[in-house]
Amino acid sequence: MRVQSDPEKKQILLDLKISLNAAVMVNVGISKTIMAGVKSVKLEGTLRIILAPLIPDVPFTEAVNIYFPRRPVLHLQWTGLTNLLNIPRSSVSD
Predict the structure, then answer these.
(1) More confident residue, 27 or 19
(2) d(Cα 38, Cα 83) in Å, to the nearest integer?
(3) Residue 40: HSE in the Cβ half-sphere, 13 Å Cα cutoff
(4) Where does the Synaptotagmin SMP domain lie (predicted)?
(5) Is residue 92 part of a domain?
(6) What range defines the domain where residue 28 resides?
(7) What are the φ and ψ backbone dihedral angles of 86, each rounded to 5 degrees?
(8) Main-chain dihedrals φ then ψ at residue 90, nearest 5 degrees
(9) Does 93 fall in a domain?
(10) Which of 1-5, 32-36, 62-66 has the highest mean pLDDT?
(11) Domain count of the chain?
């Protein structure tokens, strides 16, 4: 975690490194043979939180901005029919 304060801009900037590996079982389908879902989720990246402008009274900030400054790594392990999305793709060169 990295924290920066900028008195001129009246803001606090927080950079949080996130690494989430979660086993999740979500299945959706119309029958037992036609099922689709997600088995696990992996998320890695830096989440930026900006508290600005700062004020002297509670809640101490007027706005909270939350975003990823760079695209995070997101990997979903599919199950059922959506498992077809896990098939490696080959590039065709001319």
Answers:
(1) 19
(2) 9
(3) 8
(4) 8-89
(5) no
(6) 2-86
(7) -80, -5
(8) -105, 145
(9) no
(10) 62-66
(11) 1
